[in-house]
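Co-fold these.
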Amino acid sequence: MKRFVLIEQLLKDKGIRLTTQRRLVVRRAVSHLHFTAEELVADVRAIEPSVARGTVYRVLILLHEAGVLEKHDFWHGPPYYEVTFGKAHHDHLMCVQCGEIIEFQEPRWERLQEEVVKQHGYQLLSHTHKLYGLCERCQHVDPKRASKPPHLHVEEVVA
Amino acid sequence: MKRFVLIEQLLKDKGIRLTTQRRLVVRRAVSHLHFTAEELVADVRAIEPSVARGTVYRVLILLHEAGVLEKHDFWHGPPYYEVTFGKAHHDHLMCVQCGEIIEFQEPRWERLQEEVVKQHGYQLLSHTHKLYGLCERCQHVDPKRASKPPHLHVEEVVA
DNA sequence: CTAAAATTGAGACTGAGTCTCAACTAGATT
DNA sequence: AATCTAGTTGAGACTCAGTCTCAATTTTAG
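Predicted complex below.
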């Protein structure tokens, strides 16, 4: 089953109307690994130019409220979004110099986490774990000569 | 030794000039646990109204580049900053409803982390680990009736 | 089919953060 | 201590992501 179909079902179950625009935005969002809001706006408009910016942003809020969208913030540049629905939970390791992002899983953390959360009487909804560092390549570049991080790339576009 | 003196030394060692304004901003920043940029601007100006907003933001960038400032982003509202210099590393557990923030330490994570990072040939610079959930109190409130998270409070002001 | 409710597009608006530039220091040099 | 100069500042214009407003449109319920 396609991921976007399941997400559409999820939204429907929450009583959210599935309009043509929303379907389109969801499908385009799902097709990227990481994307900025403006990239998504452009991407959607390439297909259907009449879709308003506001509509795209509103869908992002819906996805967030449905708990299937993560936001990754950096010092430079706009946040990147990621539709997490149907993906195994993973954490991120990023190079602060070149912007490379590595996704990885670490089940041992997940367990420790539950423990800590329960101790404080919390009900866990989500979590993010981000490691910042220098990748192999960038470790060998003189930091004084290195240019500012260019702005993080979108890793890959998947159908 | 006061924390801000050590931070000033750190900046000096990096060849950064210590102006009156910078000293003031650093001191005010250190005196809060978490703060927004605009809160810091207001706080600094309460003491020295002539300090420009730009100056405050520039100090935040310096602290960030010196690796002693963390930024915490949320969906609603502006990011919160935190001067981490001289504090034992800790992670955050936040209530998405009322904005309560709990700081905790978990040494077992730190070890696992190093492991993962090395596997990928990275040199670790920093990391953040954030858990989002509902605190005891908010678990018992009907989510439909609950108001949007008000905006996160600054926990406490320490001298 | 009609009415009520939700959604949309368009564009104005907000607010955090950045940039520009002339005036002004901090700190090195004498 | 006086001088020099590169780095810093204040003021305000500017940018840009994201939000809001509202009339027009679409959807769903009856």
